[in-house]
Design brief:
Largest sheet: 4 strands, antiparallel
Shape: globular
Helix content: 10-25%
Number of helices: 1
Order of helices and strands: HEEEE
Length: 119
């Protein structure tokens, strides 16, 4: 599958910004303060992996892993967002669902804004 050159360049810039943001947080605070990390797969720039952590309430102490899969037409079209950690609230990809339903995901293409970044 051939990926769009414009999308690839955009994702490369976003990857550099994501790494810089993580490095800045660690340098300034000694830790990541955003409660998530979202970085590209080194083998496929169109797939990003994320971990959500440091939540409160019933999610306290949990780590929630997922991936963001960008279409070949990114950033014109929204990515698919999968959560791989079963948390009792979302149906996970392992159960055959094509990503979670969010206004920023491919489930609601009418809400997608191409100015938004993957992370």
């Amino acid at each position: 599958m051939q990926k769009g050159n414009k999308g690839t360049l955009r994702l490369q810039r976003e990857a550099k910004m994501a790494k810089k943001d993580i490095d800045t947080q660690i340098k300034k605070n000694g830790k990541i303060t955003d409660n998530f990390i979202c970085i590209p797969d080194p083998e496929d720039m169109y797939t990003w992996w994320y971990v959500i952590f440091g939540l409160e309430g019933e999610y306290k102490g949990g780590y929630y892993i997922g991936k963001v899969v960008c279409p070949d037409t990114y950033p014109k079209q929204a990515p698919r967002i999968d959560i791989l950690t079963d948390n009792g609230h979302f149906i996970t990809e392992q159960q055959g669902q094509p990503g979670i339903c969010l206004s920023i995901s491919n489930h609601h293409p009418e809400s997608w804004n191409p100015a938004w970044k993957v992370n």
